[in-house]
Amino acid sequence: MSAPRALIAEDEPLLAAALKTALAEAWPELEVVHVAKNGSEALEKLLELKPAIAFLDIRMPGLTGLEVAEELADGWPEGTRAPLLVFVTAYGEFAVEAFEQAAADYVLKPVSVERLAKTAARLKERLAAPAASLDALAASLRPLLSAAPAGTTLRHIQAGAGATVKMIPVESVLLFRASDKYTEVVTAEGEALIRTPLRELLAQLPAERFRQVHRGAVVNLDAVESAHRDDAGRVTLRLRGRPESIAVSRVYAGLFRAM
Amino acid sequence: MTGLPRAALIVLGLNALIAVLLTAAGFGEGQFLDNFVYSNAIGFTILLIIHFTLRAIWPGRYPGLLGMVGALALAVPVAWLVGTALASTLLGHSWLAAATRGGFAILMITAVAGTLGTMIFWTRAKLAAAEALAAEARLRQLQAQVEPHFLFNTLANLDALIATDTSAARGMLASLNDWLRASLALARKDASTLGEEFSLLERYLGILAIRMGPRLQWSVVLPKDLASRTLPPMLLQPLVENAIKHGLESSIEGGRIAVRAATDGADLVLSVEDSGGGKAAAGSGVGLANLRERLAAHYGDRARLEAGTNADGGWTATLRLPGTA
């Protein structure tokens, strides 16, 4: 077997260098093919270089480590082995169990050589075993991505339009779409922009009605007319009374299966 | 101790109640109006004596139980004499007749009603003071919370530096040490100086600059003559944290942050400016609401916090504090 290749994604340069050095000691055969300074670069290089292993920092500019994983599950070519994911974080904001489900391993910074030696042993075992399917990887990511802390439930979206503030009842919203620094609020009457980021908003929406279907989209389930699965397994949604179709990422595709 | 008009309204209600009771008991030949004039004359005299005695002896603060009892002991007999004289003059009664007819009973009613009224005010003021203290305690707790992400990531960087560059590691450790020590000390103090606050920010930004590398440029400008100006502690820290978190940390290219102190007339003007690139406009609501609460608690409406996008597409927060605290 040829030497396994890995990518490191870490925005803090000292930590990236330290991880690389510790890996060289804990797993000398491992070849680190790229060190990405942000999430977007990590995703691009992962899809380009197709390493067997990815060490992903959680908090990064561009995309977070979790978002990189989500996009990876969508963009990875079917039939080839997806990288084993190792999440790296300085502070455990998520339950360890969720990480153990979703990732091949989960390590805390600062990473020690001893800890990485255990990671190496675990990853070698996984590499020798048959690959898990992309769908299984995607499904295992879902609890992590939707682990938003429950906040107070919003009844109205208050959208500014010049000097007036429009009060939009939450249940009349068909779709929330992330748009650069804003969130687009789509209703049957039209669109409005608000400044609350989609992720923050999601925690305040009634969970039985609103579901995230993509990193940048939250739909009102009552507004979904149909879900279509194409030959490549990609799912798109059609909303009642709206022209656009909405892509569902692989992570959330399981929500729209026939009964 | 503010709100004399409000106190007057409560006293008026109390006086009316006493007048009704007196009338029902057959005082003043059962004339409600007469009794109402007497009760008001005595009641308001008590209020004025207590209000001004306390203000003269304990300005700006609420007295203890002993102070209240002392003020009452003075106010009751005086108000009885003065109030009766005032009311009898107003109604054209003979003062001697009025004083002797009510006699001991009126003095007792004056004492009881005066004590009752004073107790109401005292309890309300104590409650208000307790509420203010609780709010203060909560704020301190908030301030003392060191963001775990900051701490753990800094420790991880230190770990990396120890292996590669011992002297840089020692420098970073010294900064972290100073920053932690000063943060915890300031959270226990009522006032800080601009000099202390700025040196705290320098440590904080210095640590972040090591961590973020070329992604962070920072500058801190404090004119020498402003270093000794006092202000409530940790007002700037949340603004800088906001700029880092929402402005620079989420931006791939990073950017710069500038913290400045200046004067405008007697006012102190403090500003935190970032070059944005991140999601500057979003998410800063909670931090600012907290800060506004603190400013209001300390300065009333004499301090202002303004925030908005700047020409660089980043975010500028400006804090304007009145010249005399």
How would you describe what is shown here?
- The complex is a heterodimer of chains A (259) and B (325).
- Chain A is of the alpha/beta class and 259 residues long.
- Chain A has eight helices and 15 strands.
- In chain A, strands 2-1-3-4-5 form a five-stranded parallel sheet, with helices on both faces.
- In chain A, a hairpin with a 5-residue loop joins strand 13 and strand 14 (235-239).
- The longest helix of chain A has 16 residues, at 113-128.
- Chain A is elongated.
- Chain B is α+β, with helices and mostly antiparallel strands.
- The model of chain B is unreliable at 280-284 (pLDDT under 50).
- In chain B, helix 1 packs antiparallel against helix 2, helix 2 packs across helix 4 (95-144) and helix 6 (166-187) packs antiparallel against helix 7 (194-212).
- Classes of the chains: A alpha/beta (259), B alpha+beta (325).
- Chains A and B meet through helix 1 of A and helix 5 and helix 7 of B.
In short:
Chain A is an alpha/beta fold and 259 residues long. Chain A has helices at 13-26, 39-49, 65-75, 96-102, 113-128, 134-145, 198-202, 250-253, and strands spanning 5-9, 31-36, 53-57, 84-89, 105-108, 156-161, 164-169, 173-179, 182-187, 191-194, 210-214, 217-220, 224-229, 235-239, 245-248. Chain B has 325 residues and is α+β, with helices and mostly antiparallel strands.
Distance between the termini of chain A: 43 Å
What is the element string of chain A, with H for helices and E for strands?
Answer: EHEHEHEHEHHEEEEEHEEEEEH
Number of strands of chain A: 15
Q: Largest chain interface and its two residue counts? A: A-B, 25 and 28 residues
- Based on secondary structure, the structural category of chain A is alpha/beta
Helical content band of chain A: 25-40%
Strand order, biggest sheet of chain A? 2-1-3-4-5
Q: What global shape of chain B is seen?
A: elongated
Q: Helical region count of chain A?
A: 8
Strand content of chain A: 25-35%
Number of strands of chain B: 7
Major β-sheet profile of chain A? 5 strands, parallel
